[in-house]
Design the sequence.
């Protein structure tokens, strides 16, 4: 395509070649779908459609994740929006026949908490409260077909920017929209763009940070797998506004499907005149390279990422000068993450005023979270800024399984904070989470139930950060390790008076003196658990008890004689032969042999095994 008119013409040709009312089967085929068997379902659906010679009456599309990972593999039937869950290859034939006849297979639909069938996706509680501005497009786009993206007005925002807006106006529009970086820091993207645009030096670089290393987070991966053109278009608009002609996507090497789809999308964009020289005949040149991540968590930090692209060890460096002035190869550089770039086409297409209607005063637009942990509905959720944690956990996530109570939710990844039930009604945005001692981070959200030990949770995340610290600066390398060692002692029953105060003091040093954000935020899980769950630290240190009964060194098991029936099931499960007793007689546990694995507790059907 050599002009704006060519783009419009191409979109018209694609639309003319499609029957608008033709039924379309849409299979979620992202990484989560494939892990659940979508590849086999894809093959079965293709065979069923071919055998019935129905191509003209029924279309079939494979896409990225549809968000509700727990019900994978799932198939949507458009335009009716019928949703089938946990689909198996043997269901393919009946799904095809039902789609052709307009019927609904109720046995394959989602059942809500009251076992009521939810035939349409809009009926499913998981989706009802969401605002899937970015991620909702996945259903309409096969990531390997640029035609799908053009058909839903893809690259229209780019054309609008190139032919009807000046670079200054684009920057002003993004500033006005108050788009804040979704990678964790929340810095206003427009102001960052403005700094790079005004910086002296050529060339100027545009970088997309897709090095998503947080445990439990997969929002960026899902966007790149499902709709890579949305991210590419955002980068193109940013490059035009800033005055850049070279871009990089720094993506985790552990995301093979995302890399594969991105490579195809970049090639197709070049073939269609949307990347490279003289884009759409506008005279604007821009191209994007892929740089696969170095495999370290710290490579997601901006300066470490730049070092890695330059072929150096992925370690942070002091930021005496902003990277907007001297970043990649010592040149002005703008870095935003995947989700930030994906927001840009919407702002340009619909305007900053429209964008500002979504969210809170200080945080505009939507935010994608990966909702995982002790929650009924796990998956990727996209909600407007300002929604409460309670609406996410209970309304969208469906609450805590097995009738257990909610205890805490960790937001912001391993450097985020753990928030208790008292914080559930707080609106979720950048500023509110920071006030509570946590952070937005990249969007990981881990829910914990009443059986979670918050001291052990702090130990787990602190240990993760010890393993991922690059070790370059002493406060992070030694300080975080000391915090981890003290936490280990506490969970092992070796906690001492003053440990909590010592960790608080040490955390201040780590925060103030560490070189990069990894060290500066590493104490967050520890400090928030002390702030909200201090009584658990006291119980571990003073009473040598773990209130949640999770720390194996602080718990014991015994068998209650009144409830024991002598079924011997616990005896069979014990890996250390610590349980003795004849059949139909009371059993006993030898504390010297017991390794406190809990196998006996889990299998006992008579509440005879007591954990204390």
Sequence:
């Amino acid at each position: 395509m050599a002009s704006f008119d060519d783009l419009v013409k191409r979109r018209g040709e694609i639309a003319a070649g499609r029957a608008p009312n033709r039924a379309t089967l849409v299979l979620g085929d992202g990484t989560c779908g494939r892990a659940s068997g979508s590849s086999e379902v894809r093959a079965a659906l293709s065979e069923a459609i071919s055998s019935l010679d129905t191509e003209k009456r029924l279309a079939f599309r494979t896409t990225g994740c549809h968000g509700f990972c727990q019900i994978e593999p799932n198939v949507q039937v458009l335009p009716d929006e019928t949703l089938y869950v946990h689909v198996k290859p043997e269901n393919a034939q009946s799904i095809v026949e039902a789609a052709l006849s307009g019927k609904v297979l109720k046995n394959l639909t989602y059942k809500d908490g009251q076992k009521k069938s939810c035939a349409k996706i809009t009926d499913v509680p998981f989706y009802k409260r969401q605002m899937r501005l970015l991620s909702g497009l996945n259903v309409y786009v096969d990531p390997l077909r640029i035609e799908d993206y053009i058909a839903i007005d893809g690259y229209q925002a780019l054309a609008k920017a190139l032919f009807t807006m000046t670079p200054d106006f684009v920057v002003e529009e993004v500033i006005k929209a108050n788009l804040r970086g979704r990678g964790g820091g929340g810095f206003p993207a427009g102001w960052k763009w403005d700094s790079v645009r005004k910086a002296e030096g050529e060339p100027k670089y545009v970088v997309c940070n897709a090095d998503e290393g947080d445990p439990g987070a997969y929002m960026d991966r899902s966007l790149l797998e499902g709709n890579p053109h949305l991210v590419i278009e955002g980068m193109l608009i940013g490059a035009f506004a800033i005055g850049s002609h070279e871009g990089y996507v720094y993506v985790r090497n552990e995301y093979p499907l995302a890399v594969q789809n991105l490579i195809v999308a970049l090639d197709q964009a070049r073939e269609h005149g949307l990347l490279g020289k003289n884009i759409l005949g506008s005279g604007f040149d821009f191209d994007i390279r892929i740089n696969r991540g170095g495999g370290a968590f710290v490579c997601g930090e901006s300066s470490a990422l730049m070092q890695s692209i330059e072929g150096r060890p992925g370690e942070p460096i002091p930021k005496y000068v902003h990277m907007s002035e001297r970043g990649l190869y010592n040149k002005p550089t703008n870095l935003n993450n995947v989700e930030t770039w994906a927001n840009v086409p919407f702002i340009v297409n619909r305007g900053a005023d429209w964008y500002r209607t979504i969210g809170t005063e200080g945080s505009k637009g939507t935010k994608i979270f990966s909702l995982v942990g002790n929650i009924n509905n796990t998956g990727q959720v996209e909600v407007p800024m300002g929604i409460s944690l309670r609406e996410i956990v209970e309304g969208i996530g469906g609450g805590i399984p097995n009738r257990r109570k909610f205890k805490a939710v960790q937001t912001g990844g391993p450097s985020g904070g753990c928030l208790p039930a008292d914080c559930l009604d707080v609106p979720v945005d950048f500023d509110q989470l920071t006030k509570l001692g946590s952070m937005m981070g990249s969007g990981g959200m881990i829910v914990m139930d009443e059986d979670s030990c918050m001291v052990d949770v702090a130990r787990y995340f602190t240990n993760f950060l010890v393993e991922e610290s690059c070790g370059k600066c002493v406060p992070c390398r030694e300080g975080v390790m000391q915090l981890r060692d003290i936490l280990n002692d506490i969970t092992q029953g070796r906690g001492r008076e003053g440990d909590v105060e010592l960790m608080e003091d040490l955390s201040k040093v780590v925060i103030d003196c560490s070189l990069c954000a990894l060290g500066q935020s590493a104490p967050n899980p520890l400090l928030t658990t002390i702030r909200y769950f201090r009584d658990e630290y006291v119980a571990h240190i003073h009473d040598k008890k773990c209130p949640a009964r999770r720390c194996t060194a602080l718990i014991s098991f015994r068998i209650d004689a009144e409830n024991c029936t002598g079924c011997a099931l616990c005896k069979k499960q014990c890996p250390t032969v610590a349980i003795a007793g004849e059949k139909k007689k009371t059993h006993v546990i030898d504390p010297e042999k017991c390794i406190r694995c809990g196998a006996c507790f889990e299998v006992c059907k008579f509440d005879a095994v007591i954990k204390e």
In short: The two ends are 71 Å apart (CA to CA).
